[in-house]
Known about the structure:
The protein is an alpha+beta fold and 167 residues long. The protein has helices at residues 80-87, 102-111, 127-149, 155-162, and strands at residues 7-16, 21-31, 53-55, 93-96.
Amino acid sequence: MMEGKDGYLVVTPLEREGEGTTVLVNRGWIDKQHKDQKSRPEGLPQGEVTVEGLLREPWKKNMFTPDNNLAKGGFYFPDVNQMAERTGSQAVWVEETMQPDLIVSWDREAKGVPIGRPAEVNLRNNHAQYIFTWYALSAATSVMLWMVVKKPPTDLARKVRHNKDWS
């Protein structure tokens, strides 16, 4: 999905010259009407290409995502190992990036050229989890301190307190 429209991610094996290896490149999103390669001749790379992208770890399958249909070549989530085995490439996932530009995106969408993601790095934001953890530890420590302070004295301590013969 991109902006409420259904579509596909185009994943292409890229043969690296001189290296003799192939990697998987997520070239970006296309809408459903351009599924057939014949409907998007401008979106098919020809000859030598240069890819600017980021090495990424693809997202994981959740419990609501169906299993990939390998018989029909339908992937509902990018299982890099399955894709690499199917294409004979390395299990390396590169996401092609592009500058975010609305007019360029509309033009690419109309021609069936995949729309890449902006080059941004998303760091995990666990601040709420950290806050909860530290406040819970603080509360637990406070409860333990209160239990130590309010603990009734032992028999020996009580005898020492009541002893009046201390000089």
